[in-house]
Amino acid sequence: MDFEWHEDPPDWKDNGRRVEVQSQDGSVRQGVLDIVDQTPGPDEVPIFEVIADDGSALSIYSAKRWRFL
What we know:
This protein is an all-beta fold. The chain has a single domain (12-68), classed as SH3 type barrels (Roll), CATH 2.30.30. It has no helices and five strands. It has strands at 18-22, 28-38, 46-52, 57-59, 65-68. A five-stranded antiparallel sheet has the order 4-3-2-1-5, with no helix packed on it. A hairpin with a 7-residue loop joins strand 2 (28-38) and strand 3 (46-52).
């Protein structure tokens, strides 16, 4: 398992995996990665949100860092 912190965005294969996200203020929340869109063009890149355990949606791109659980 990969428990290291990441700052780069996840990849397509990571959709649905549980993650822990650390916000810029240092708070930490857990949830599941969900692809909500993709960038246009031939090199499509997934755009992820984290569906937190409380049901709220968090942008993975506004997080300081994240890791798989």
